Amino acid sequence: MNVIRAIQTYIDKMITDAGPGMKILMMDRETISIVSMAFAQSEMLQKEVFLFERLDSVRSNEKLKYLKCIVFIRPTKDNIFMLQQELQSPKFGSYYIYFSNIIPRTDIKILAESDEGESVQDFKEIYADYLPVNPNLFSLHIPTCLQALSWNPEALERSTQGLVSVLLSFKFRPAIRYRAGSTAAQTLAKKVHETINKETALFSFRPPEDGAAPPLLLILDRRDDPITPLLNQWTYQAMVHELLSINKQRVDLSRVTGVPKDLKEVVLSTEQDEFYANNLYANFGEIATTIKVLMDEFQKKANDQRKIESIADMKNFVETYPQFRKMSGTVTKHLVLISELSVQVGQQQLFEVSELEQEIACRADHSTQLQRVKRLVSEGKISAANALRLVLLYAMRYERHANCDTSGLLKLLQDRGGRSHIVPRMLEYISTVARQELFNTVKITDAVKLTRNLIKELKGVENVYAQHECVLKGTLEEVIKGRPLDAQYPIMGNEVPFRRPPAEVIVFIVGGATYEEALAVHRYNQEGYRIVLGGTTIHNSESFIEEVLAATTGVPFKHSRSLQQFHHAPAGTA
Q1: What confidence score (pLDDT) does residue 408 get?
Q2: Contacts (Cβ under 8 Å, ≥6 apart) of 110
């Protein structure tokens, strides 16, 4: 199960079916990102795709009849209308049209009637309607999906389409489970289930043999684990996203001092960058060692390049120069990234901040933690964003503590210009399940769970910056061990629940996934399991806070009435 390979297979098929010759690839705003995250432009050129155009761009009227046009777009109403206009006055010699998802028959008829010159040579649905981030991770790039803690209708429709596309690309007709108590997860599960039943011909895959359980689609809710997106991360990909932000594989370094012009924006792709692919989940200390090894190797090759004393040396130089240039670019790019991460860690005092975050997330020690949070927030040595995160974590953990002093912390935060109004909104955002289970504030009656928790406490943690375990890790353990799921994760429809664990699992998180959760999935996959994680988006702490603000707009304050004076943003803050 590899989402990047799935997308690449579809794109390769599109290009192959068009046959040899010069081709242009026409895309929309979203499919451009899908293609660029699967292939580099240089790879597309090798496939005889020499031009790239947006369907909605203003183009010249020049006819290019010698070109084959591959159209790869989402089946939206706007795209259908623009493609209809294109076919009524075709610019290219022939068209090979591919939709990234299921297209209604009425739209097919409209397009067929528009093709009066019979320039369309092929017309197909391919199921590549999601962004492949890592081999085990996909995103739908929906920054905010809830309004007043209910689905935004457009986001619900897009999420349904994206999930259906993922299922079809893997040829899965899954059992669908959703988080009990989550209306958002249940609604999405119902929509996907209805689509599968409606499109029975598309989902008529051979059932698993030997009585094996079908694949599982597990739909979860970000509101059940608001802790994970707020924590500082210490693995390479997650650190880059938290401190610099990764947007569709691109990192904007234009604000970093002293960065060369050609590195103002860099691409981080597991397909195009071997160093990145091998070190996605390496921690900060390991990365520093690894980049040193890469530097030594590069310097050795650079010295070898200088020793050109014979015809054979010249020939070898010409043959190895492209690889040398590529290695040079890789070394420079990652040196810049790691250097900037190191600067940020020092400037933001992230070791101290992260240690306290982990302590609050994993251990109950109210008095000590309150004093430490007060000191860090009031001293002003840490950034306002880090101060806010500490207060958020404290407020969630000690919401029901007799001596909870969230109000006092918010006053300190407000005094330094922090966004204190976000804390009450977060308390409205988190789910009932999170309140009961996230910090083990209720008595655990399940003997198995109690034993596991005790063992975890006794084992201790080697790394104080990585004590926290995301909720997803425990959820996946329940799934792959074949434990009963019906109470916490009801099955959608009339399917009879299988007691055997599924061989393949697709997890989708409404409200966004994180790279920490992708790491948990990666570790299970290393043990031989087949799991893919997806989300409406991929969060860092800042994007998650924006998600919370959007989701709680218009929600009455029930859980944070005691913080009434902080309910609204002070003048001049967002």
Answers
A1: 93
A2: 80, 84
Q: How far apart are CA 163 and CA 153, in angstroms?
A: 15
556 vs 320: CA distance, rounded Å: 65
How many Cα atoms sit within 13 Å of 446 on the Cβ side? 10
Phi, psi torsion values for 412, nearest 5 degrees: -65, -40
Give 192-200 contacts, CB < 8 A, sequence gap 24+: 192/160, 192/163, 192/164, 192/167, 192/217, 192/219, 192/492, 193/492, 193/493, 195/102, 195/160, 195/164, 196/164, 196/167, 197/493, 199/102, 199/164
Q: 316-336 in b/e burial notation, b at 16+ Cβ within 10 A? A: eeeeeeeeeeebeebbebbeb
CA dist., res. 574 & res. 567, Å (int): 13
DSSP line for 9-64: HHHHHHHHHT-SS-EEEEE-HHHHHHHHTTS-HHHHHHTTEEEEEETTS------E
In the chain the domains, ranked by start, together with CATH numbers, are 3-127 (3.40.50.2060), 133-225+470-539 (3.40.50.1910), 236-348 (3.90.830.10)
- Based on the number of CB atoms within 10 Å of its own CB, is 210 exposed (0-12), middle (13-18) or buried (19 or more)? exposed
Specify the pairing of strand 64-73 against strand 23-27: parallel
Q: Which residues, 6 or more positions from 289, have their beta carbon under 8 angstroms from its beta carbon?
A: none
- Cα separation, 433 vs 185, in Å, equals 13
**Chain centroid, CA 222 distance in Å:** 13
Closest CA to 141 of 187, 74, 82: 74
Residues near 386 by beta carbon (within 8 Å), at least 6 away in sequence: 232, 348, 349, 350, 353, 376
Quick: pLDDT tens for 7-62. 999 999 999 999 898 899 999 999 999 999 999 888 999 998 988 999 988 666 77
Which pair of structure tokens corresponds to residue 561?
């009435």
What's the pLDDT tens digit per position in 446-472?
A: 444 433 443 344 344 347 788 888 999
Q: How far is CA 510 from CA 129, 175, 487, in A?
A: 17, 18, 20
Q: Are 233 and 539 in contact (CB under 8 A)?
A: no
Question: How far, in Å, CA of 153 to CA of 145, rounded?
Answer: 9
Question: Which tokens sit at 493?
Answer: 């429809």
* HSE value, Cβ hemisphere, 13 Å, CA-based, for 477: 10
AA identity, residue 487? A
- 337-352: b or e for each residue (b if 16 or more CB lie within 10 Å)? bbebbeebbeebebee
Helices (H), 95-221: 105-114, 153-169, 183-198
The end-to-end CA distance of the chain, in Å, is: 41
For residue 28, which of 61, 63, 57 has the smallest C-alpha distance? 57
The first and second tokens of residue 379, run together, are 């001293």
pLDDT at 162: 96
Contact 210, 455 (CB under 8 A): no
Structure tokens at 417: 């210009």
Q: Do residues 573 and 419 make contact, with C-beta atoms less than 8 angstroms apart?
A: yes
DSSP 363: -
> What does the alpha-carbon distance between residue 507 and residue 118 come to, in Å, rounded to a whole number?
43
